[in-house]
Design a protein that fits this description.
The complex is a heterodimer of chains A (113) and B (112). In chain A, the strands form two sheets. In chain A, strands 2, 4, 5, 6, 9, 10 and 11 form a seven-stranded mixed beta sheet that branches. With 113 residues, chain A is mainly beta. Helix content of chain A is 0%, strand content 49%. Chain B has 112 residues and is an all-beta fold. Chain B contains no helices and ten strands. In chain B, a hairpin with a 3-residue loop joins strand 5 (56-58) and strand 6. Chain B is globular, with a radius of gyration of 13 Å. The chains are: A mainly beta (113), B mainly beta (112). The interface between A and B is medium-sized, with 21 and 24 residues.
Chain lengths: 113, 112
């Protein structure tokens, strides 16, 4: 079955550490996205990529970094510069620009200890 | 409906009743709207969508109504079942723009 796989599902981090969240899709989608979800708030866009080797900042990119070396993969690194990293992180993809229905992964919950 | 802050609006219904979940959107230029369902600890799933040239669209047990005059969207679930318990949120997409915006959501609880 095609879909998006995020790992790990749960991750604990000490303050000052960088962590990388994995996102892999086998849907042959061109565009991939990272969202952050906090209680009581709508999803907020961190980064997105519409094509391999290219990505754009979203609304809350500070303290995060991404790469898009392969079409299938869009890992997110939460750096120590992110002051409030505890959240639920969702990866999503679409066929391409203008294809608006997002397919989401199951999410990764990051907790900073 | 929409919420800003730490607490989601909640809706509790009896199994078999109909549910109505509301969403107020902000951008009058929004052209396309989507409802997502998110179960606890999982990613959101597409339920139904509607374009701004329509005011109603029906799916299996779900209906979306769009009132552009007051910028209001609603999701109706018929004969609500325990498996419908989840957070439901709307998304709006402006014309010629990939800037999708999400509502905070409403938590639906179905009592057996």
């Amino acid at each position: 079955d095609g879909g998006i796989t995020q790992s790990p599902k749960y991750l604990f981090r000490k303050e000052g550490q960088n962590v990388t969240l994995s996102c892999e899709q086998n849907l042959n989608h061109d565009a991939m996205y990272w969202y952050r979800q906090d209680p009581g708030q709508g999803l907020r866009l961190i980064y997105y990529s519409q094509i391999v080797n290219d990505f754009q900042k979203g609304d809350i990119a500070e303290g995060y970094s991404v790469s898009r070396e392969k079409k299938e993969s869009f890992p997110l690194t939460v750096t120590s510069a992110q002051k409030n990293p505890t959240a639920f992180y969702l990866c999503a993809s679409t066929r391409g620009a203008g294809a608006n229905v997002l397919t989401f992964g199951a999410g990764s919950r990051l907790t900073v200890l | 409906g929409e919420s800003v802050g730490l607490h989601l609006p909640t809706l509790s219904v009896q199994e078999g009743d109909n549910s109505i979940i509301n969403c107020a959107y902000s951008n009058s230029a929004s052209d396309y709207f989507i409802w997502y369902k998110q179960e606890s600890g999982k990613g959101p799933q597409f339920i139904i969508d509607i374009r701004s040239n329509m005011d109603k669209r029906q799916g299996q047990r779900v209906t979306v109504l769009l009132n552009k005059t007051v910028k209001h969207l609603s999701l109706q679930i018929a004969a609500t079942q325990p498996g419908d318990s989840a957070v439901y949120f709307c998304a709006e997409i402006p014309v010629n723009n990939n800037d999708m915006r999400f509502g905070a959501g409403t938590r639906l609880t179905v009592k057996p």
